[in-house]
Write a structure and sequence with these properties.
This protein has 2 domains: 95 residues, no CATH class; 42 residues, no CATH class. The chain has 7 helices and 6 strands. It has a 3-stranded antiparallel β-sheet, with no helix packed on it. Helix 5 runs antiparallel to helix 7. The longest helix is centred in the middle third of the chain and has 17 residues. It is globular and about 55 Å long. The N and C termini lie far apart (44 Å). The protein binds zinc ion. The site of zinc ion has 7 residues, from loops.
Length: 155
């Protein structure tokens, strides 16, 4: 490959790579996901990641996959698979790092409606939150059709 071609080689954003790996159920993708989380836990742009997941309507699917991988990490199954593919052990510190990084990738789906100035304030859950131009998540309350920005679980 010539140098000018190298410069033009497309770079897949980390967030895109993560989403691609998270979408599938194959063992190798689970291992790749954990490896990405361990290598770059601070470099993941959460706002960009959220926008991509939400606009692609993948919130439910990705959240479920995150939960599944967290369970694999907690049960020790991920460590076995990791050892098989990578030949090394996952340390408990690495498992902790991966779990912390995974937690940040969960798209919040519980919102508070209406805002605090109403006496009917209540929490509702949505399958498909939306995201505005500024990157804020919101959802419409199914009872009041009120646009709700306030997350029930602070991110
Ligand atoms: Zn409501």
């Amino acid at each position: 490959m010539k140098p000018e071609e190298l410069e033009q080689a497309p770079v897949i954003p980390l967030e895109d790579l993560l989403i691609l790996k998270l979408m599938t159920l194959r063992e190798l993708d689970t291992i790749d996901t954990i490896a990405l989380l361990l290598e770059n836990p601070e470099q993941i742009n959460i706002a960009s990641y959220r926008r991509k997941v939400v606009t692609a309507d993948l919130t439910q699917h990705i959240n479920a996959r995150i939960e599944a991988i967290a369970q694999l990490l907690k049960s020790g199954q991920a460590s076995e698979v990791w050892k098989r593919y990578m030949g090394t052990d996952l340390s408990s510190r690495e498992i902790g790092t991966a779990l912390t990084a995974l937690k940040k990738l969960v798209i919040p789906t519980e919102f508070i409606c209406p805002t605090s100035n109403s006496p009917q304030k209540h929490v509702f859950k949505t399958d498909a939150p939306r995201i505005d131009n500024l990157g804020n998540l919101y959802a419409f309350c199914p009872i009041h059709t009120y646009t709700c920005y306030e997350l029930a679980v602070p991110s």
